[in-house]
Specification:
With 232 residues, the chain is α/β, with parallel strands linked by helices. It has helices spanning 43-50, 57-62, 77-84, 96-110, 116-119, 150-154, 158-174, 177-191; strands spanning 6-9, 15-19, 22-26, 67-70, 88-93, 122-126, 138-143, 192-201, 214-217, 221-227. It has a single domain, classed as Vaccinia Virus protein VP39 (Rossmann fold, 3-Layer(aba) Sandwich), CATH 3.40.50.150. Bound molecules: S-adenosylmethionine.
Length: 232
């Protein structure tokens, strides 16, 4: 597993370790697998945020909204895409290990002159959106909680598989995953001035069975858009 400076067991057999490349999540049972870390300079994330930015369904769904709350930030890939398109993105992540990975990725990216301007548009807080308080609203609130049937999304994607192992364990020890998930949409609607965007698996139903105003559908995922009509 190479040299590392600090390591800490963090649930479901995974180890959070700090090495010269930063913070990473590893499975000690899979010593040949590279650590999962947040690396905004990686090829895939760079391609996604450079090429045909306007054609991305997430950005089409967010539309002209400038101030976005990403209430379920995860490893920050969607937030980075939105920030690459010039959005100001405030991120919330409730899981301490996922938050630590993302905070470390942001720190390293902030030191990279090519990435720093994008990172400057992103802020991160460790918080559970369901108990979070803020003054004012956001142009858009984005929700991408764990997909209802995680194993499909995780297939072949190590990052998502690790994330699911961590987050699902935390949720099952907290209990009532479904009731918590059902609170996300009404809460997001309360924080949005313009719209709420919900990422879903393409073939799954709407969140809370609530029909969106419109959707952008891709091969694997779909972005459901709920428009908010407010007086202010
Ligand atoms: C599927 S991941 C998000 C992936 C993210 N969109 C990305 O691009 O990397 C879902 C994340 O939402 C977080 N989450 C779920 N419920 C939350 C809540 N109520 N408040 C804050 N974070 C939450 C989970 O801990 C998990 O890290």
């Amino acid at each position: 597993m190479g040299q590392f400076l600090h390591g800490r067991r963090c649930g479901n057999g995974l180890l959070l370790r700090f090495d010269a490349a930063g913070l990473g999540l590893v499975d000690p049972g899979e010593p040949k697998t590279a650590p999962v870390r947040v690396d905004f300079s990686a090829g895939a994330i760079q391609r996604r945020s450079r090429d045909s930015l306007r054609g991305q369904n997430l950005l089409r769904a967010i539309g002209n909204c400038e101030a976005v709350l990403d209430a379920t930030a995860g490893l920050g890939r969607d937030a980075f895409l939105m920030a690459s398109a010039g959005k100001r993105v405030r991120m919330l992540e409730c899981h301490p290990v996922v938050h630590a990975l993302l905070a470390d990725g942001l720190r390293r990216a902030g030191e990279d002159p090519d990435l720093a301007p994008t990172i400057a548009g992103m802020t991160l807080e460790q918080a559970d959106f369901l108990g979070w308080k803020a003054n004012g609203r956001f142009d858009a609130v984005y929700l991408d909680p764990m997909f209802p049937k995680p194993e499909k999304r995780a297939r072949g994607k190590k990052e998502m598989a690790f994330l699911q192992r961590l987050v699902n364990q935390a949720e099952s020890s907290r209990g009532s995953r479904d009731s918590a998930a059902s609170e996300l949409l009404p809460r997001a609607l309360g924080f949005a001035r313009g719209r709420v965007v919900v990422k879903r698996p393409s073939r799954e139903g709407w969140m809370n069975d609530c029909k969106p105003d419109f959707s952008y559908r891709g091969r694997l995922s779909r972005f459901d858009v709920y428009l908010v009509r407010t007086e202010d």
